[in-house]
Amino acid sequence: MGKDFEAGVVGKETLRIRRIIEDHFVLNGASRIRDLPPEQFCCHGFVLGKTAEAGFGNEMYKVLTAAALSIMLNRSLIIGQTRGKYPFGDYICYSNFTFTMNEVKHLWRQNDCESKYGRQLVMRTDDFEKPAQTNVLCSNWKEWKQPIIWFEGTTDAVAAQFFLKIYTLR
């Protein structure tokens, strides 16, 4: 294992992953998706990262897991707001690469997605802590038709690792 560090493999892989993340948010970031023509915007998908500000560690895992899923599923990221504020907004700056739920609703109406394209703005909600009540573990996530996906209960690194493991097996 030490040989990888000596050869610079870890540094190269870190930069490769960073490029993948940057490329994803350039292609699927709110700054680009906002400007898509209606027929493309209405076919686009989103992942919701929602927190309750109960504690920084667990709550940030929810946002980071949603960000990881947005990359895996090739969807844009929505950061859920509480009382009109971003989670921990007093301490963290958010970029122009994420949407708010209000913005997605507004753009959905503005682009007339429901009447022109027959696509209702609905959210698929799966509780990661109750896998027996969902088919999330067995289904093909890329075939889901719902515009917004929200995974509840993704409060630790195990959730992100699980999704990554499943994703790489497909």
From TrEMBL:
Superkingdom of this entry's organism?
Eukaryota
Pfam families (UniProt xref): DUF7810
- Per its record, how is this protein called by name? Uncharacterized protein
